[in-house]
Amino acid sequence: MAHMGAHAHSHDEHHDLESMRLMGFWIFLITDCILFGTLFATYIVLHGNTAGGPTASELFEMPGVIAETFILLTSSFTSGLAVLSMNQGNRKGLIGWLVVTALLGASFIALELTEFVKLVHEGATISTSGFLSGFYVLVGTHGLHVSLGLVWMTALMIQLGRRGITNVTRRKVNVISLYWHFLDVVWIFVFTIVYLMGVM
Amino acid sequence: MLDQIKEFASGFFVTGDPLIYGADVAIAMTMIAVVSVLTYFKKWTWLWREWLTTVDHKRIGIMYVIASLLMLFRGGVDALLMRLQLAVPNNDFLTPEHYNAIFTTHGVIMILFMAMPLMFGLFNLVVPLQIGARDVAFPFLNSLSFWLFFFGAMLFNVSFVIGGSPDAGWLSYPPLSGKAFSPGVGQDFYIWGIQISGIGSLATGINFVVTILKMRAPGMKLFKMPMFTWSVLSSSLTILLAFPILTVTIALLFIDRYFGAHFFTLDGGGNPMMYINLIWMWGHPEVYIVVLPAFGIFSEIVATFSRKRLFGYASMVFALMSIAVFSFTTWAHHFFTMGSGADVNAFFAITTMAIAIPTGVKVFNWLFTMYRGRISFPTPMMWTMGFIPCFIVGGMTGVMLSVAPADFQFHNSYFLIAHFHQVLIGGVAFGYFAGLYYWWPKVFGFKLNEKIGKWAFWLWNIGFYVCFMPQYALGLMGMTRRMSTYGWDRGWWELNLTSTIGGFLMGIGFLFQVWQILHSIKFMEKDTTGDPWDARTLEWSIPSPAPHYNFATIPVVDSKDAWWEEKQRLVQGEAPKPKPPLEPIHMPKNSGIPFIMGFCWFVAGFGLVFDWLWMAIPGLLGVAGCMLAHSFNYNTDYYIPVDEIKATEAAARRSV
């Protein structure tokens, strides 16, 4: 009897623990917002300082960027579908949608890297001008976030395969989906401020 | 081959200065001594199991305090070396280059590797106990924060003997700190030392916000929290919003230096003034981050030793929170002379003056708390009494500096130096000392010797005024900061010599504190009550030192000063509240991952400083490996059985 009591109690505590971890992640996202906010501010200050090098409207090619944008937005949608499958208790659906999300994320990164390589070959490197320093670091920091997310998502898929949907893995899926949506929102700002305002 | 090694070593190690050779010998001997003592007494396993892998907030707090006191020693030696150099005109005790390095490391160490960790130490030692919790929200992350701070501090300090110290000032303004003007590795040590420990600080901020918002004992509504906990909340919220800016700024400086980018360079469209704006957008909140908890400490101490409820609780909370918000609106007062124009300067002058209002509210609250109280003066209260006048003078000279037109005269003079030392020593250092003295019996289970403590207090307090009052005058006489020497014809030497004497008085005060600790360990005066000061908040309701699970049963709170009210009820003959039966306690398991991950960061940082990718890449892979290892580990907690709790409680109190 005493054992059962302890068990019920522990179940409650685990639940509290997981909700606390989710809250911690929300707060981490606030700090990440400030981090991106600072990078956006530096980009906005420097975006006119081309130092005789190429300008934004000369460099950016919108078709590729629009493709990247749609891929990332779709991946945000599929990560939402993954969470829905999880809430229905459907582990296969959950892992399947996470795989789709990760593949979309990887193709986003591949496109971004292709763009960077092309720019560097055109002679537009990080040390060309203040504008390009700001561009590479802002867009690159977003890309780094997405890449870390991919590693993390892969690790989580392995854990889901081994352990199924538990309180702990459920919280982890919720957290990574939050992270993924957050990166999507940041990309909307990158797309608008860096690319759209750059070519207009 | 031998020649190659010699050539490498002469660039790798700092050479040519007898002071550094002396330090080399001292460091080597200390390390040999530590290793031999640990080996001789077979303490390596003990060190690993009980300390290096611990996730217990109380032990992490103790490690923070020890590390920060060592850093206080190093920063203090730097200060005294500077004062010796300035004691007489035309002195050649330190070369100008050496002097630059010393004022840089003095500033960085005192703020980032002394004040911050001492503050985090107090957070850890006190907050969970004060809110009736068994640990912080994320114990693993807490341990990781500590080891990131520790290895960041080590990386920074290594520059002293390997590669050369940074010498571009504590905030390292570009273009001086850029590759063109600081080609050596010192600046890279600065970047990675601060970056690594800064990530830890950010994590601690998140940890304590969640701890305070989610882990308070049942019944402890926000407006029933102890004032120190409020101050930690305001400080942690400020950390969340300020530290990411530091991370970005330092990272951009690194990218400029390493990849040749043009954020802060003079050529290529860079903008050095942007660095100065960014670094102060973090830097100004940073000084409030360190001083807010000191305000909380004074609030606890004043109430305890006046035997009265804190006067103006709600206004105190409001003042703390409004200072946290206002701290983000004043940064440009650090560079009124930059030339932003009259409108910008007027805005920042007014916001800066406005911050004096909530600060004034606090001072009046402390004074009214003492009014008609039954006041006693043990050491924590003495430091509080030393703080109030000191901080008022420091605050008023701050208001003088905030007057933008007048600031064109004061800017970067010794007037400024005297001002910020007065608020940082008089406010932060006095505050943390007061806190250490106050909570020492709770942490270690014995009291510190009062008599030696009073000697230390008077030496510090008198030394402080002797050291810094002359510096206000020197500033008005035209002496600017960071000058390594001056001529006889300036008429500055009498005041400088006086200031040096004051500095050494504070140094002797520090030695008295060391003696006080050693003496108190030897003639241990044990605290058997758990409540040696007859205090008011929950941490005093449990034995000293606290058992590792803190509270055998979680207390239920129905008022401010919960423990004081409970004691009053007992005095009036009411029966104590019935305690619920003991249940198994859920605890986090120790983990070696934080230590290993901190070490991997150290390796990566060292590799990046010297541009050795063969070292940096494995270091970073190690960091990633540690994170994955933690993610895959599901065996992270355990239960303390009821019998063990009973035994521990009985040993501490002889009854349950």
From TrEMBL, chain A:
Complex formation: Heterooctamer of two A chains, two B chains, two C chains and two D chains.
- Keyword vocabulary terms for this entry: Cell membrane, Electron transport, Membrane, Oxidoreductase, Transmembrane, Transmembrane helix, Transport
Q: Which GO terms describe its molecular function?
A: cytochrome bo3 ubiquinol oxidase activity; cytochrome-c oxidase activity
Pfam families documented for this protein: COX3
Q: What does this protein do?
A: Cytochrome bo(3) ubiquinol terminal oxidase is the component of the aerobic respiratory chain of E.coli that predominates when cells are grown at high aeration. Has proton pump activity across the membrane in addition to electron transfer, pumping 2 protons/electron.
Query: Gene name on record?
Result: cyoC
The protein's name in its UniProt record: Cytochrome bo(3) ubiquinol oxidase subunit 3
Q: Where in the cell is it found?
A: Cell membrane
Which Gene3D superfamilies does the entry link to? Cytochrome c oxidase, subunit III, four-helix bundle
Topology in the lipid bilayer is annotated as: Multi-pass membrane protein
The main location class comes to membrane
SUPFAM superfamilies documented for this protein: Cytochrome c oxidase subunit III-like
Q: Name one GO cellular component term.
A: plasma membrane
Residues forming coiled coils: none
What protein family does this chain belong to?
Answer: Belongs to the cytochrome c oxidase subunit 3 family.
A biological process (GO) of this protein is: aerobic electron transport chain
Q: Which InterPro entries does this UniProt record tie to the protein?
A: Cyt_c/ubiquinol_Oxase_su3, Cyt_c_oxidase-like_su3, Cyt_c_oxidase_su3-like_sf, Cyt_c_oxidase_su3_a-hlx, Cyt_c_ubiqinol_oxidase_su3, Ubiquinol_oxase_su3_dom
Q: Where is the Heme-copper oxidase subunit III family profile domain?
A: 1-199
Task: From the record, give the transmembrane residue ranges.
Answer: 25-46, 66-86, 93-111, 131-158, 178-198
From TrEMBL, chain B:
Q: Which cofactor does it need?
A: Cu cation; ferriheme a
Keyword Electron transport carried by entry: yes
Q: Pfam families of this UniProt entry?
A: COX1
Give the SUPFAM superfamilies listed for this entry: Cytochrome c oxidase subunit I-like
Q: How does it sit in the membrane?
A: Multi-pass membrane protein
Q: Which GO terms describe its biological process?
A: aerobic respiration; electron transport coupled proton transport; respiratory electron transport chain
Known catalysed reaction(s)? 2 a quinol + O2 = 2 a quinone + 2 H2O
Q: Name one GO molecular function term.
A: metal ion binding
Question: Where's it mainly located?
Answer: membrane
Subcellular location per UniProt equals: Cell membrane
Keywords of this entry:
Cell membrane, Copper, Electron transport, Heme, Hydrogen ion transport, Ion transport, Iron, Membrane, Metal-binding, Respiratory chain, Transmembrane, Transmembrane helix, Transport
Q: What InterPro entries does UniProt report for this protein, alphabetically? A: Cyt_c_oxase-like_su1_dom, Cyt_c_oxase-like_su1_sf, Cyt_C_Oxase_1
Which pathway does this polypeptide act in?
Energy metabolism; oxidative phosphorylation
The record's similarity note reads: Belongs to the heme-copper respiratory oxidase family.
Please report the name of this protein according to its UniProt entry: Quinol oxidase polypeptide I
What organism is listed for this UniProt entry? Cohnella pontilimi
